[in-house]
Amino acid sequence: MVRYELLLISRKFQHPRQFELVMSGRVSGEQLAGLLEQQFPGQQWYSGTCRLEELELLPASERLLLSELPQPVRSAPTATSCLKLYIRRGPDAGAWIALSKGEHLIGRTAPLWLEDPLVSRIHAKLSVTTRGLHLSACANQQIAMPDGSRYESVDLEQGSRFILGHTEFAIGDPLVEGSSISVSPDQLEIQAPPKPEMARLIALVLAAFVPILSGILLALVTGSMLFLILSGVSALMGVVPAGQLLIERRQWKREVKAQRAAAIAARKNYAPELGEYFVSELDSASLGRPCAQVPPLVWGEGLWSPQDIAPSAPKGIHKVLRSLKKPKSDAPWYGPVFFPSTTGIWQLKTTQGQYAGSILASVLARYLPAIHAGRIRLVIDPSIRCLPSSLLLMRHVSSAQLVAPEESRHFGNEDNALSTIYVTAQAPQPVPGALVLGIWPATAECAENWITPHPVSAHLPDERLALQNLSPLSLARFDKMVHQLVALQKRSITSHLDSTQEPMLALRAHLGMSDQGEEVFLDLHEDGPHVLICGTTGSGKSEALRRIISDFARNYSPAQLAFALIDFKGGAGLSVYESLPHVQLFASDLDEAAAERTLEQLEHEVRRREELLASHGCSDIAEYQALDESEQVLPRLLVVVDEFRVFIETLPQANLRIDRLAAVGRALGIHLILSTQRPAGALTGQTRANLNTTIALRVNDQSESVELVGSTAASKLIEPGQAIVKSATKPTRNMQCSLAIEPPLHGELFERNRHDLSLMSLCRFEKAFVPMASDPLRAHAAELASKWESTVRPVSGFAQPLPLPEESAQPPETWEGIERGALYCGVVDNLHRARLEPLVIDRARSRSILICGLPEAGASELFASLANSPRKVLCFGPAPIQGTTGNLRVVTGEDLYSFLDAVDFLESMPQDPSLIIIVHSLAQLQSNIHPQHFQRLDEALGSLLRFGGAGSPLVLCAVDRDQNTLKSTGLCTEQWFFPFNATESLRMIWPKIPTCSPLPGRGVRISSGHPPQVFQLTRVQAAEAASSTWLQLTPSDDATLGAGTEPQNLLGYAPFDGAVVSRPMSQCVILLCPDVQQRLRISVALAQRWNGLQLSGLADLENFVRTLREGPNSAREKLLCLFLEATNDSRLPSLLEVLRSAGLNVVLCVPPSSRLAFDLGMSSVGLDDRQVVVVEATHPQDLQPMNWPAIPQGSSAHSGDYWRAIISKHGKPRMIHIPHNLAQSPLAVRPVPEESCGLWREEHHYGGSGNHDGQYRHGRHHRDIRAEERD
User: Fold this and answer.
1) Which domain holds residue 1161?
2) What is the pTM (predicted TM-score) of this model?
3) Residue 298: its pLDDT value, please?
4) CB-based burial of residue 565 (10 Å sphere; 0-12 exposed, 13-18 middle, 19+ buried)?
5) What CATH number is attached to the domain comprising 959?
6) Which residues contribute to the annotated binding site for ATP?
7) Is the Cα dihedral 162, 164, 168, 174 positive or negative?
8) What parts of the sequence cross the membrane (predicted)?
9) 472 and 389, same structural domain?
10) Which residue numbers belong to the known binding site?
């Protein structure tokens, strides 16, 4: 439960009213205003000049002074270093007034308001003039002086003292008078040497007188003086040491007297009068010099006998003789009875009442400055009813039950140092680290020391002290002393809550509440620089981390504090805070590469901060932030690692980097919070030495608890969130961690009695129903993020994370090498420059890239994007995209002739910078073609990579396990590795690469002269190129191709690059076509194209030969296109021989046959492949007698526009396309010579009179149409 002390001041109240608000959690100013509205309707409350509703979250145990009107900031009515009239001792000790020029009244009225019953209302008047100070009594009163004299008026000066009733006054400035006095414990005791022994002196005197008496007797008996002389000499030898002993004794007495005087003066300075001490400390606090040490425990006045250390008290006559012989230097000294402030129990054997309260007030008044300074804290048992409630308005004062000692709470005070004062009205019990003051009528069993007020008797720890008088203090005066210190609390609640409005002097996060009901904070300046959080599963480590992050994110802006979160618990614990503007880095064990990237970035950040501080001449971040001319904001960085053991086991190199962060983090403003279940073996000595604070939640092993907090207490914690905080700068505390999201509030409001600490319940506040979000933690993080939505974020020293594959990265407007045709295809993670840079494929940097990984890892995405880019792409392998585009040409190997054409193209060393050559799916490509052809591809790529000039195309080769299939891959100047779905066997082939997230499109680039870089592929962007599409050949394009060549010489064109193919120069060209109709059509088309005569059948050939023998010689220059259905006629060889002898060029359109050479009457060697053209041969038998590969079925989408044919090119079969309708193009029309007209007319006339078949008539009719078109 969280407790608030409220002091409400209103004109509706007769006196200020004090309240205690007990709530289940911390409240904000708006919530508190709502609660007070229920009790005081229509009342507006202000804290200083600020409305209560404007205050943010209030710290627990906060003391609030609320009024109905704004209170301007005033100087507190506190003491200052000036001449004062103050009360040294008495019921009103500590009262004072500043002595300004004029007349000051002394009495039970203003300004001192004395409570001494022997002092009248106006007892005396003090006049302050330029001549001095004059005190005069009033109404027949007298003024007593310390020496016992009495006067009606007296002149005073600084240092003067006088007494009125039981009150002693003084003139002076206690701060100046006591500022140079410092007393050590050794000065409080007499440090004299041992007292000389009296027995030795007596022995020496006796030894001197015995020889003298003997000499006198012998001289009388013998009458000789010789014996007398000898005895005198012997006596003299004893008298000399006795005299020396007397001198030592006198010196010892003088030294003891001096030591006694010094010890008495030291005791007076160590325990000065209450009024003098309080006014001096009040002055010091008002001047910003808080209490330097804890004062002693002073009960009153009595006797101190410094030499009364005999082991047992004398009895009878010895006691009387001792009292008669006791030297004056051993007389007891009357002064304050005090004891060092140490832990223990003191009991006041009486019941509660005003007198008991005045005695406690006198004791506690000395501790008020130390409590105000925070050196000790005061805890008041709720059973106490004899102290004013104003005590609870002071910080470090709380009301709680006295806690019985338990083993789990014995920690942090091994040196028995005093940290707490407990005041209780029950039987006192010992509490570690506490001084227990109990009011109980019967002697408690655990009471070490006790005091009885009536009559005064005491059992004291020092037998030399005897308490004779107690020094009660007026409770009204004690209340005023408390209010004076409350007014000194300069830290306003508004400035404390709004840390963004003032310089960041501390980094504090609220952890929870201690067992004493006080707030526990984690301060990275005091408790840091680094923190360790340990606890077993379910102990609340992750919730504690979330609480710390939430509080830091609420109280500090992104310009003050940045986060680097590493969650190795699956990301479930800290991932909700990834959206905070403070978070500059986030990683989890779900992405090991991101965690390693975070480590690398932290290392670069350390180097960056070191260089930044060095360039400005600063030794640490505090000096840099104090500079006015700092060029950039440098926030502190909080690195949080959840499950640190798993983190270093996963990334073994993390330990060295964490060691460096721990060593240099404080100066650079980098703080670590490490969370783990077991610290043993996880932390190195370097890191452990810099962990100044440990938050130990429940652990299973007692040895781990001893290692963490020095006791077994952590192993005995039960509830989740219970923790022990051990710090190098603060005492160890038990606490309950708060939740990251506060539950609905409920509580109760109590009113305190003005004169005691009793409470009266006023109202209860029940839990309000608040509809919960589906994910309250994410909603809470979103609320924190919205708070800093409008703030300007500082420049981060970390690169932004690479975009995920599903994210669409905005391409830059320009990039390096865009004018040279460089391609933008992604972003590169440049950790050295802390930024993301464009991933550019630039031929000036690398003309070939080897892409390693499975196709789905990144190669397919890249090739598909390249296929859609404004660049020509030649792809060896399956098509990267569906459909066809003008810039993409795919060579799968299923069409051998397309593959051979593409290889021929590579062997020609193309000089086209805009061309991109892609080779992928090598295993599939290799299975589709002959090994010899695949080797040719390998050699062609190798030659292109070795000897390609500046204008050679870009080559991209994608491999997985088939990397060794192509030897030319070893010539690639750059390598890209995609680890997505890569098996271990595949990774073993690769070189050692940086850790990379296994995501599609995420890879590592390795090139000579550059460190490895991680990148993410995006859509390819490129500037428009001059030639970005392949030449697409259509029937209209065929005319253009034929324009540079005479139509009678054009056979077709190469389908790959559109090169013109002329008809074979052989006298006899053999055109093989298995289909009769296609064979006839091509015969007619070629006759038209080449201006030749088309003959159909052997009968037409015989008629033509007969005409040839009878006709003119000019007819012998004609070209014949002969269509034959079969070649097995024995007349054919003789007829062909006639044509050959006549020098006529003949194109034989014949069916394939294995006996073709024999049927045509050729030599047994066979046909010359240069004179053979095979058309639409899709089966091996269609190519007989040629031993060429068949044309694949349906390999062309334009089969209706051209015929696919195979010819011999450089001794190798290659495919060409023979267009259908080139003759229709005007560019292909060629005038027919006049001498040929007679022949065409004769052919036509002969055909009309002869008996020819229909095919010949079709050809003749076709020729007539051609003639008509020419006309």
Assistant:
1) 1076-1183+1202-1218
2) 0.68
3) 93
4) buried
5) 3.40.50.300
6) 535-542
7) negative
8) 201-221, 227-247
9) yes
10) 535-542
